[in-house]
Specification:
The chain folds into 4 domains: 123 residues, Hypothetical Protein Ta0175, Chain: A, domain 2 (Alpha-Beta Complex), CATH 3.90.1070; 209 residues, DNA-directed RNA polymerase, subunit 2, domain 6 (Dna-directed Rna Polymerase Ii 140kd Polypeptide, Chain: B, Domain 6, Beta Barrel); 119 residues, RNA polymerase II, Rpb2 subunit, wall domain (OB fold (Dihydrolipoamide Acetyltransferase, E2P)); 52 residues, Alpha-Beta Complex (DCoH-like), CATH 3.90.1800.10. It is α+β, with helices and mostly antiparallel strands. The strands form 10 sheets. It has a 6-stranded mixed β-barrel with strand order 12-26-13-24-23-30. Strands 5, 6, 7, 8 and 9 form a 5-stranded mixed sheet that branches. A 5-stranded antiparallel sheet has the order 10-14-22-21-16, with no helix packed on it. The N and C termini lie far apart (88 Å). Helix 8 runs parallel beside helix 9.
């Protein structure tokens, strides 16, 4: 007896599972059972599983019976004349939806001429095996799978034109590319996804060439002339938001220029951009520390008596200012109310980003890299026809990565640019490489995509021919301006007295276990004495009981809380984190005795 499970619950038995499976599929194809219910037979476990729960991913496939596709030429003609629709094909049983479980028992053909009697289904279009981002990669079927994956992930991080009404939106961390373009080499998904309404890259001339080692290890060399003419410029927007909060006892925050007697008043220079209402004006150039929204709040801790005799001096300063490392221009100021009816201020800051060394770029094939050098236009190599590339791509990025589509796109982009047309690079169904070669040859170029190049510095001809073409390149959101970080002295944590963590909090850079090993191996172990004293502290220790003693600042005396005032107390230099650990031991009832010895 075979057991039948519905959504994981046992519901019945059957003597003939295969017959039940066939009947079920037949009924579903007739439309008597809804198309979103799936069935599969596990021969090893002798189980029939039926799934109808929500949240499953199901995909359409053309049904194949006895080695022949059920979708006929007549169906296609009717579709073209709009006599039938896609849903009619589903209800007629020509197309059915399979989930991951039912797909285990299916053999799916890619093309009609591949169908054998063993096949059960056929793809609507081979491109359907890819997701949205992967299907935007031209000639994606020529790439190694990992790179295709990386290429589709990189497209999600590219800067572009994300939404039409960006001027009236207050979004966090937004980047806008100034002159986004539609790619010359496209796939059919560019058309169906309305890609021209939200493009995210630019078509540039790319030469596959090393340059002084500045494009080693995946970095790229960029032509300064291209940047001066606006290549990959973008604007970075971020909001500063503040609201007047209400507190118990009828107290409320006040958005205004703080008075000088307010607790925590900053300098007058910090408030110089604020207008009478305490809010900054548009188009002000601001840098880190400048106040954008002035605000004062009632004191944090109030006893019931103090509530009624509040003086201005007891209020505290709580203005919003630009954080560490930020700068820009005030773009837009919005004064409104939140759900509770409290005053809400939103100020948008913008910052123009011009490509600099360390900014990240990528093609659509997972060939990502950062700018290693920006070369003056006159020093860039140039071709016989006088073309100077915008970007130099290192040839070492190709052999191990096997991204053939990267090279095909270079040539296809060249053909498209010279002929003034878009090239169809849909995976599995693209314009053939041989045809592109012939077309390139007919345009007066070498059919293998290479050209003679000359050195921009010496004017001498390169011995090797250089592979050059047009390509769609993307600027990614990982920019140096958002990540650059260094610190000498700065804020520390209250508990451990060690530097704070993270760039936003002006934190320290951690020298960890492995970094320590490199210094020791280098023979510079004394450097660790300096590196590991970020929380150095001097603690009085009782020499008799070995516990931490107390130092009285006013009387300039030290005494041990256990041994009394006559105990010998010595000042010891140690890490505050260690002192903290001793305190935690004491809290557990463990006696951490420090045995002191003289150095000499």
């Amino acid at each position: 007896m075979s057991e039948i499970y519905l959504n994981g619950k046992f519901i019945a038995d059957t003597d003939n599972p295969k017959e039940l499976l066939e009947n079920f599929l037949e009924e579903r194809r007739k439309g008597k059972i809804t198309h979103s219910v799936n069935i599969s037979y596990d021969e090893i476990m002798d189980h029939i599983k039926i799934e109808s729960a929500g949240g499953r991913v199901i995909r359409p496939l053309i049904v194949v019976k006895e080695g022949v596709s059920v979708l006929t030429q007549k169906h296609l003609e009717q579709l073209e004349k709009n006599e039938i629709t896609f849903s009619d094909l589903v209800s007629q049983g020509v197309i059915e939806y399979l989930d991951a479980m039912e797909e285990e028992n299916a053999l799916v053909a890619f093309y009609e001429d591949e169908i054998t009697p063993r096949h059960t289904h056929m793809e609507l279009i081979p491109l359907a095996i890819m997701g949205l981002c992967s299907s935007l990669v031209p000639y994606g079927n020529f790439n190694q799978s990992t790179r295709l994956n990386a290429g589709s992930k990189n497209q999600k991080q590219a800067l572009g034109f994300y939404v039409n009404n960006f001027l009236v939106r207050m979004d966090m961390d937004v980047n806008l590319l100034h002159t986004p373009q539609l790619p010359v080499v496209q796939t059919i998904m560019h058309e169906y996804s309305d890609y021209e309404k939200h493009p995210s890259g630019q078509n540039i001339v790319v030469a596959v060439l090393s340059f002084d080692g500045y494009n080693m290890e995946d970095s790229i060399v960029i032509n300064k002339g291209s940047i001066d003419r606006g290549f990959a410029r973008s604007t970075y927007y971020r909001p500063v938001i503040s609201e007047e909060l209400r507190y118990s006892g009828g107290l409320i925050d006040e958005i205004s220029i703080p008075d000088k007697d307010v607790k925590g008043y900053r300098s007058e220079r910090d408030y110089r951009f604020l207008e009478e209402d305490g809010i900054i004006y548009p188009e002000a150039k601001v840098a880190e520390g400048d106040v954008i929204i002035g605000k004062t709040s009632p004191p944090r801790f109030l006893s019931s008596l103090d509530e009624y005799n509040l003086a201005t001096s007891s209020r505290r300063e709580s203005s919003m200012s630009l954080k560490h490392g930020q700068e820009g221009v005030i773009d837009f100021v919005l004064v409104t109310e939140n759900e509770e009816g409290n005053k809400l201020i939103q100020v948008r800051v913008r910052d123009q980003r011009i490509p600099e060394i360390g900014d990240k770029f990528t093609s659509r094939h997972g060939q990502k890299g950062v700018i290693g050098m920006i070369v003056p236009s006159e020093d860039m190599p140039f071709s016989t026809s006088g073309i100077t590339p915008d970007l130099l791509f290192n040839p070492h990025g190709i052999p191990s990565r096997m991204t053939m589509a990267h090279l095909i796109e270079l040539m296809a982009g060249k053909v498209g640019s010279l002929n003034g047309r878009y090239i169809d690079g849909t995976p599995f169904d693209a314009e053939k490489e041989e045809d592109l070669r012939k077309e390139l040859f007919s345009l007066g170029f070498r059919e293998n995509g290479t050209e003679t190049f000359y050195s921009g510095r010496s004017g001498k001809k390169f011995k090797a021919k250089v592979y050059v073409g047009n390509m769609y390149y993307l600027k990614l959101k990982h920019m140096v301006a958002n990540k650059v970080h260094a610190r000498a002295r700065g804020p520390i944590q209250l508990l451990t007295r060690q530097p704070t963590e993270g760039r936003a909090k002006e934190g320290g850079l951690r020298l960890g276990e492995m970094e320590k090993d490199t210094f020791v191996a280098h023979g510079a172990s004394l450097l660790l004495k300096e590196r590991f004293d970020s929380d150095r502290t001097i603690v009085p220790v009782c020499e008799e009981c070995g516990l931490i003693a107390v130092h009285n600042e006013y009387k300039n005396t030290s005494y041990c809380p256990i041994c009394g005032e006559n105990a010998t107390v010595s000042n010891i230099e140690l890490a505050y984190a260690f002192k903290l650990m001793l305190d935690e031991f004491k809290a557990l009832g463990i006696y951490p005795k420090l045995i002191l010895k003289n150095k000499y």
